[in-house]
Structures are given as structure tokens and as C-alpha cells.
Design a protein that fits this description.
168 residues, mainly alpha, two-stranded antiparallel ribbon, 10 helices, 2 strands, 60% helix
Length: 168
């Protein structure tokens, strides 16, 4: 994708979509991508983004999303992703992110998310999900995320956005 001049980084993609008024939040972006059938699994998405050289670390991705105002809290993100059925299992997600070199440990991931203001503690995140009636236990959370479905590939997403004239 970068070779045909679409985008060079996921940051540019997200930034451009915001500049053009196409999305205001990551929630809207994920919701729309599912609606038009653009995406499959977070694993495939993350794997493809790394393969295409769009991101180097999940830290960069999360940091940039906050910088361009796409997300406010991981709580909102998780809440919305469950609502629109975007995620599989947290275990698969974390395992894959580690496999493709995006994170080394869950601790590092949580530490970074806290650093960029996305969450304060995992406990708060779980407490919030329970408060809004999403889960009662972490086990139920994982089971639920596995039950619902996800997304295609970032390449297909970018191809579609180009097809409908959203990006050049």
C-alpha cells in the first residue's frame, strides 16, 4: 500500500480521516468499518499493519489515536467494540500482538496505556465494564468477546476507502 502512495503510516491515515471530517472517534471508525464489511480479526489487522510498515508498536498507535482525538478512554473503546461486535478474545489479541512484536508483556501494554491517559488501572477498566452491564467477571468478558465477531484486513479497509473516494 505505501508503494502506491496511499498512506505511509496509520497515523497519517487516522489524521487524514479526522481532517476530512470522516470520523470523530475511533468508535465511529470501527462502527463504520464493520457496517461496510471491511474488517475481520484484530489479529489480522495488527499483523497486516506491521507487515505494511504502518505501525511499529501498539504504543505508537494508541499514542497517536489519543493525540488526534480519536479515543478518550480504553473503557469507551472496549464498551463500543463489544456493542458493535468488533472483537474476538483478549487472549488472542494479546498473544498476537506479542507474536508480531507489538508488545512484549501485558504489563508493558497496560503501563503504556496508562502513560498516554487511556486507562488508569485494569481494575478500573473491568469495574467500568461491569458497571455498564457488559461483564460480571473477566471470564465472561473474554467469553463475550469471543462470541462476537471482527474485521477483514487493513488493506481491504484502505482499498475500500480509496474506492469510495475517502482517501487518495
Amino acid at each position: 500500500m505505501p508503494t502506491v502512495g496511499l498512506i505511509h503510516t496509520l497515523e497519517q491515515c487516522l489524521n487524514r480521516m479526522q481532517i476530512m471530517g470522516l470520523i470523530h472517534t475511533l468508535e465511529q471508525c470501527l462502527n463504520r468499518m464493520q457496517t461496510v464489511g471491511l474488517i475481520h480479526t484484530l489479529e489480522q489487522c495488527l499483523n497486516r499493519m506491521q507487515t505494511m510498515g504502518l505501525i511499529h508498536t501498539l504504543e505508537q498507535c494508541l499514542n497517536r489515536m489519543q493525540t488526534v482525538g480519536l479515543i478518550h478512554t480504553l473503557e469507551q473503546c472496549l464498551n463500543r467494540m463489544q456493542t458493535v461486535g468488533l472483537i474476538h478474545t483478549l487472549k488472542q489479541c494479546l498473544n498476537r500482538m506479542q507474536t508480531v512484536g507489538l508488545i512484549h508483556t501485558l504489563k508493558q501494554c497496560l503501563n503504556r496505556m496508562q502513560t498516554v491517559g487511556l486507562i488508569h488501572t485494569l481494575k478500573q477498566c473491568l469495574n467500568r465494564m461491569q458497571t455498564v452491564g457488559l461483564i460480571h467477571t473477566l471470564k465472561q468478558c473474554l467469553n463475550r468477546m469471543q462470541t462476537v465477531g471482527l474485521i477483514h484486513t487493513l488493506e481491504q479497509c484502505l482499498n475500500r476507502m480509496q474506492t469510495v473516494g475517502l482517501i487518495h
